[in-house]
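Blackboard transcription, Thursday session:
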Amino acid sequence: MAGAAGRVSGRPRALLRVLAGLRRYALPALALIAWELLARSGRFSPILFPSLVNIAREFGGLVTHGDRLAEAWYSLYRALGGFALAAAAGVLIGTLMGRSTLAAGLFEPLFSGTYPVPKIALFPLFVFVFGIGSLSKVALVFLECLYPIVINTYYGTRAVNRVLVWSARNMGATPGQILRKVVVPATAPFIFAGFRVALPIAMIVVIITEMIGSADGLGYMVIYAFASFQTARVLAAVVAIALLGLALDGILVAVRNRLVFWEKLESYYA
Amino acid sequence: MMRRAPFVCGVFVASVLLGAAGARAAEEPPLIRLGYGVAAEEQLWLMMARPDLAPNQGKRYRLKPIVFQVIPERFQAYVAGELDGGTAPGLSVIFARAQGVDVKAVASICQEAAGKDWFSTTYMAKDDGPIKTVKDLKGGTIAVVGIKTATDLWARAALLRAGLVPDKDVKLVPMAFPAVGPAVRSDKVGMGTFVEPFYSAEKAKGGLRPLFTAVEAVGYDHELLDLFFGEKFLKAHPDAVRGFLADYVAATGYYLANREKARRDIHKAGFVRTPLEIYLKNADWRRDFHGRVDVASLKKLAAFMLEKLNWLEKPVNVDEMVDQSFLPR
Amino acid sequence: MMRSVRLARTISLLALLALWQLLSTRAMPEYVLGPAEILRHFTAALVSGELFPHIGASLARSIPGFALGTSVGILLGLLAGVARGLDELLSPVIFLTYPVPKIVILPLLMLWFGTEDLSKVVIIALACFYPAFINAYYGAKATPAILVWSGLNMGARRWQVFRKVVVPSALPLIFAGVRVSLALSFVLLFAAEMINARAGLGFLIRQSENSLRFDLMYVSILTIAVLGYLGDRLLRATRKRVVAWQELQGA
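(Written on the board underneath:)
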């Protein structure tokens, strides 16, 4: 890299740049190396510190064995099912609240008042009402995801620039056209912001409920492996859960960037 | 120079106190942190309810009992260094050893035995429900009390006998003992595991029908609960363990000879919540007078776990796992 | 205008409660209790004192966890927002692990730190760390550059600019993050207690579930709700005093 005025050129500069670029991987790499060293040192039982090799092996087993993959599927469809329901209901309620002060007056105190209440406390009750299977979990996911979606949609609908609506009306647009071509696109970024908050919540709630009382799912797999002293398998399940969460967020961002194409979102995980 | 005086005094006082504390600690008998449970452990409860039956306590050992609702937690607490020993099904000890947990079974608490004199853990379903035989459970759930424990094993054994595949045909849900009755009654699960004192309490309420017992599921009498200790603790404090076990065997003898009085004492101390009249009438598991472990049955269970259940990856040396040298002669 | 809004809110709330009470008097499954009944059980439990040990046990875990996680999160977040080196070091890892449900690590923490309170404090701290960090990070990054430049121009050193410009300007976002942390601390607390505990409100809910004591279950839920509500109010009051110069719009 010769030439730039006053700069030191040559290999040291390029090397430094490469190192600086790798800085983001420094912490995880260090942590992984330290872990493996501790695991192999023999000072701790493999139950406390399983080797990364074993964890990787268990993870491989997870993605290749059909019955274990099925557990991941259970968790996924519970999370997505509850999320989808919350998305549909939430956007509806939020838009309603944004357009009608009556609806806002009715619903807003309900949502903001119960926001600080940890709804997870209701889960044992839900199990009584909905049974021990997927329904109780989907119901809790629905309840928890509803809040961010409703709140974000509500603020988004309110924030639609009046000028846009007026100019559209001025140009002769029907209420239906105004809704489709002005309100929805203007609210879309807010709605997706709500989705982006709600999606990790859906995963979290599913895992928690599966850890508390379940016979299947990734959360159950964690508890089962833990009771069987297979800590490597516990961590493999943790990795699977993490990857699932990342994948879902990635898909959501991709979908959003296609629909809200005028305002691209930077991914957290560049 | 004057400013240093308080500091020096402080150091002096601290070291005196530390020395005194150290000396006192050396005098005090070793502390046994013992994890115990909520079912079938009458002799241990008696030891705690009637310290007069445990004369070595305070002299050869000190006891810190910690209650756990489920079995796996006890081993987890042990691995985390919170317990020195505890109670657990013999087969759970086998399983834990296979996974590298360094514990040994030192005495027997109770056994599953056939015969009308003894109680055997019973699996019940709703009387007016669709489950009449084990085969009817297909597609349903069974409530067990802990993963990879005795109740888990018995359920699986029964399912295998009926030609069903555990986890695929029938799911097993873990829940605490007290929750099983309500779960079956409210159709949360198709069938549940019942041990005393919960069995009698539920039987008195009616509406549940027994389907099979643990002994029937496995096919032979076998060891149920054992006392385990960590290997390191056994090496470090053999006298404390011997003192504890001497008291334990004495309490066992007293319990078997004076069952009603013993149960009253246990109930009064709050270890059992079932109403007293029902508790007094409960049938009991078989308990060995001397706390001797039925090693042969454990070997059969180990083979079962290895071959039929795939719980073990390789055979476990049960002889090495059981160390009865700490029991009184 | 404000007063009529508040009136409308109270009316709608009371109407809902009345509806609930009415429904509960009809034939309902045994797990449905009316608000009057729940309130009765609640006051009885308060008076008898059986709630306090559990409240104490729960708070003893959540408060240290919340305090630890939030303060470390805010500090690191602010620093990462201003120092590029730290940013590149920390942010990728933190944003990557953000969507992972922290509760799944609880079994591992139980093996490392024991089955008692320490493992729960750690996991609550871990969960509270993330929203605090992320919000402090974005808050610091969003400091208007012109304020920073003026500060530097007037001869302030970097530390002073940090303390007097960056931190105050990031405060609104920080408080938003702390609010999320507070809510999360409760969620993790009760989830951890429901999975494994011997005392505390989450444990109480599970115990009442096990013995079919719905009165106790509702009482625990109500207690948790009250605690959550009080905590949030406390936070709001603190925020009002600290961020006094910013006009807040009832977030």
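Lecturer's comment: Chain B touches chain A through 26 residues (CB under 8 Å).
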